[in-house]
Every structure is written in structure tokens, then in C-alpha cells.
Design a protein that fits this description.
Blueprint (H helix, E strand, L loop, with lengths): L1 H89 L25
Length: 115
């Protein structure tokens, strides 16, 4: 009986074992290939999409901050110009000066004391 089982089922067991081993090998090689393709796809996406986007963001931020700095500088120049114009017009001899001078009770000397 054992000899009969070996003759009948031994060969089919070997065939099934070989079939499942080849299936497992194919599964492993497919998984390795899929991982390689996934890594390649991720690297390509990084190279084609993400890196140009980040470069564009950096250049756009640089341009924006440069414009902000330039605008701030111009605003400072305009502010100083208006301040000097206001001082010119409201000084003692300016067009909008107070003609009735305020009474000066104390006046500090501009002379520096040297010890």
C-alpha cells in the first residue's frame, strides 16, 4: 500500500511542490521588480515635479521679498522727504509757521561742556 501511494502520489507531490516553488519564486521576483519600479517612479516624480516646484517657490519668494525690501526702502525715502518738507513749511520762517512765538522759559545751550 505504501509503495502504491508512493507511486501514485509521490510524483504528483513532487510536481505540486515544484509548481508552488516556481510560483513563490515568481512572486518574489515580481515583488522585487515592483519595488524597483516604485523607487524609480518616486525618484522620477521628485525630479520632474517636486524639484522644479521647489526651485520656483524659492525664486518666487526671493522675488517677493526683494520687492518688499525695495518698497520699504522707497517708503522710507518718501517719509523722510515729507518730514523735511513739513519741517521746512512749519519752521520759524516757513509759510505755516506760528507767528506768535511761544514763550521760552528755559533754553538749553547747544555748547558742550568740556571738563
Amino acid at each position: 500500500m505504501e509503495q502504491y501511494e508512493l507511486d501514485q502520489f509521490g510524483k504528483s507531490h513532487d510536481l505540486m511542490s515544484n509548481f508552488w516553488n516556481s510560483c513563490f519564486d515568481d512572486l518574489m521576483s515580481t515583488a522585487i521588480r515592483r519595488d524597483k519600479e516604485k523607487t524609480y517612479s518616486k525618484d522620477k516624480f521628485q525630479e520632474v515635479i517636486v524639484d522644479p516646484y521647489l526651485r520656483r517657490v524659492r525664486s518666487e519668494n526671493s522675488r517677493y521679498y526683494s520687492g518688499q525690501k525695495q518698497s520699504s526702502g522707497q517708503q522710507g525715502v518718501v517719509w523722510r522727504h515729507w518730514e523735511s518738507l513739513r519741517r521746512l513749511l512749519t519752521s520759524e520762517r516757513g509759510a505755516w509757521a506760528h507767528r506768535v512765538p511761544l514763550e521760552v522759559k528755559w533754553k538749553l545751550s547747544r555748547r558742550r561742556r568740556v571738563l
